């Protein structure tokens, strides 16, 4: 359809008298066809901040906020615009003719009543909005405006009716609601609906002008939601988050409303205010004062998203509404004030009634007509008035009932009549026939017009009266006692002047009452006691109440001195006394008797207290009556602490029966002294041995118990135990010695024969322990033996015995074993315990041991079993040390073979029966051979090829290691020099030769090495001398000197089998080593986790000391992978090659050379 035809159709529709829904649907279809749109909506303001729509889908895909943004942009630019969307939001606005995709086309529809009317068409239009689209939208706007106006006419008529209904509802709310907040919340909600304004709020002010109540409503919000929004706003106001409002303050001050039809551009508002309304999309706002009878009580505020002109009708409507609301606020406040006044009056009445009901007095109020107007519960209870009199308010019967109980009824009535004729107060007492006594108080009820009645108060004082009578009688009895007491009773003031003295003073001190009244009592005190008496008086004055008694000597009237015991009671603050009361008792005769007894006791105590033995007196049940002071020296207890304690509480539990038997024997033999030994507990918890001699002296009244004389023999007992212990124990390690071990072994064999069980002996010797004594000294060696003994002891089972046979030899006796596995299990625990390093002077020492195990039982003797274990131990040493062997019968044969082999060794050196094999050392990252290690073999004429472990220990023990080592070094250097010339590697191949401790100690060793290098012409830097850790334990100073001399020749030094010996890590800095070789035990891939960590630590240590790392014993790819991961540089082992004969080694080097040339 052409644009012209579409405009004609729209004009025809707008010209219809009453275009209905059909006309609007035809118009929408016409717009869709003319604009090429997928949908079209005609929008208009809904009055609640949102929009309503005419269209096929009834709503475009735009939010109310987005539509207001479109409206603002269209109004600003004044022409149709295209909307470019991104992520369901407006990205920007496009002009007509702009070649960019647009999703919506928007155009303003002019209207006198609603400037927010718009045409919104949904595309899309890939090529953008054309000028034809814009021109059509502008041309169609008048017809569309007429169509919308016709359709909205009906809506406005309905809104007018709604306003009338809302006003009526507001009036009903005001009349029916007495809670101000609830009433205003509903009015705000209905006012929003009434005015079609978006926001309505009411602020109620307090007397100081602050906001005390705020109600807020947004059009279209349910009352419950509005209440919640208002509550939230009030909380924000309390937290200071609701900003001050200058418009509201102006309206309150001037009592005039302020209306802003265009709040976004009104110059009366500051720029910040206009910007605020722009951000909030508020176009119109107004504030109206709520003026009550006493002034402005609050404000009514409006805000709208659309322009709101507040015409004359709307202003009158709002003005009437504000007056109605202000009157409602005044009414509610007046109601609240009256209700608060009534509540206060009611609370006061309740308080008065509660007070009268809680008093102990009976209260009766009588009016001016003589009628009772109030009686409290206590009054009814006091007089016992029957309930029916109270319920019927029969005052005549009540008066008769009261008078009938009194002892003198006529006098009571006469007093009542007398008081009713005056306005005086009255207080007297009335007596009851039953003996009760009441205190009666009366006062008039005064009003402005005179006396209007009386209030009577009755208090039962019967008990009080009886108490006062009893007190008076008590005082009379007390006075009689004091007057006739044997003790002296005196009352004195703070200066010592007597206020009262009892008659007994004259009997005790000879002074008459009148004579003593003129005397200061302190002047009677003995001069030696004067200071004590003065101090006591000061203490008594300073502290009210009773004070401890003191003894003083007072002068008798005749001049002698009497000893008195005085108790003081400070009653200066007691109105009835106002003095210090002294009770003094004459104890002169008692003190003389006490002195005589004390002198006798002192003589006895001097004898007892200076005795070195313990002297104790006990009863039959062993309760201590007396204990001499020497107990503290012997057992640590203060003597007075043990009084009443039972001696059995101090005895060792095993000695109680013996002690009781001792007491029974003493009772049977009262004339004899009996004795016993026992253990007594010291105060520190230890036990002391004592010899006790005792007699039964119960018949002696001065003693009355058993007298025990105890002598401490603990030191003697300890010495006896020590001598017995030392006879069977090693003094250094405290283990059993050889004698005790042999004795226990013989007894164990006897028990094993009886029980048909087996025993085992483990004989253990420390490997190379002599190096510790030589290198660190014997004191360090002794300390190490003590630690080793302790570790061994912790590995044993209960009942097992460990012994030191001397030097570095230990033996273990295992009883009641059934299999050899039990014995080897103990040996495993011992070896495991020795595995962690020992620390000495900051240096770590590693200890290894060799052990032999022999099983025994019936038919064997101790010597045979020890000899078998010793043989097995030597076999363990021959097989590499650091291990144990279980004794076998064939081991005797091995010992004989060992002796024969030693003889053959001398001949072999002379006949050159030795050969050198070579094992390659490789670069771990690429497998290239970088050197070889020389390993000697013995080609025995009868036994065949022997490995080093089979003859090197014998060579070292016999000294044959010197010529053998010299030959191996010369042969190895010659072979390597030949290979270096044939295979010129870069760097050159190296040869590693093992050197023993004996060679290092040889004075000529350095010269021998220099001569061999010279003869073989081997470059010194390609010779590596490998030395085991044990070299660091022999004469450190001379060893370092030899190694430095070798370094001066250019030779490189390697420490072999690192981590298996006694060496301290600190020695590595002192010895000039170049290479660190890790022992194969740390390379084993199946090693324990802590060994793996040790491997890492050794490599890190070598790298820190700038030493080359070589790993020995690599036998599996897993080991190689782990060493590569630890960045180990070089290694050797069966994984690469076993030790090879000379020709085989030469072939291997040749093959590597060929591969290198081919590459």
Q: How would you explain this protein's 3D organization?
A:
The protein has 36 helices and 42 strands. It has seven domains: 1-90 and 101-158, 2-Layer Sandwich (Beta-Lactamase); 177-338, GAF domain (Beta-Lactamase, 2-Layer Sandwich); 359-469, Beta-Lactamase (2-Layer Sandwich); 487-521 and 546-592, PAS domain (Beta-Lactamase); 604-719, PAS domain (Beta-Lactamase, 2-Layer Sandwich); 728-887, Reverse transcriptase/Diguanylate cyclase domain (Alpha-Beta Plaits, 2-Layer Sandwich); 900-1158, TIM Barrel (Alpha-Beta Barrel). It starts with a helix and ends with a helix. It has 1159 residues and is an alpha+beta fold. Residues 236-242 have low confidence and may be disordered.
Outline:
The protein has 1159 residues and is an alpha+beta fold. The protein contains 36 helices and 42 strands. A hairpin with a 5-residue loop joins strand 19 and strand 20.
SSE map:
Elements: H1 3-15, H2 21-35, E1 39-45, E2 51-55, H3 64-77, E3 81-86, E4 89-94, E5 102-108, E6 118-125, H4 131-176, H5 180-195, E7 199-205, E8 211-218, H6 223-238, H7 246-254, E9 258-260, H8 271-279, E10 284-292, E11 295-304, H9 312-358, E12 362-367, E13 372-375, H10 377-383, H11 387-392, H12 395-403, H13 409-420, E14 426-431, E15 437-447, E16 450-460, H14 462-484, E17 488-492, E18 498-501, H15 504-509, H16 513-517, H17 527-542, E19 545-555, E20 561-571, E21 579-586, H18 588-609, E22 614-618, E23 624-627, H19 630-635, H20 656-668, E24 674-681, E25 687-697, E26 705-712, H21 714-727, H22 738-755, E27 758-766, H23 770-776, H24 778-794, E28 801-806, E29 809-817, H25 820-834, E30 838-840, E31 843-845, E32 849-856, H26 862-878, E33 884-886, H27 891-911, E34 914-923, E35 929-940, E36 944-946, H28 948-958, H29 961-982, E37 990-995, H30 997-1001, H31 1005-1016, E38 1023-1028, H32 1036-1048, E39 1052-1058, E40 1075-1078, H33 1080-1083, H34 1089-1104, E41 1108-1111, H35 1117-1125, E42 1130-1131, H36 1142-1158
Parallel strand pairs: 32-33, 35-37, 37-38, 38-39, 39-40, 40-41, 41-42
Antiparallel strand pairs: 1-2, 1-6, 3-4, 3-5, 5-6, 7-8, 7-11, 9-10, 10-11, 12-13, 12-16, 14-15, 15-16, 17-18, 17-21, 19-20, 20-21, 22-23, 22-26, 24-25, 25-26, 27-29, 27-32, 28-29, 30-31, 34-35, 34-42, 35-36
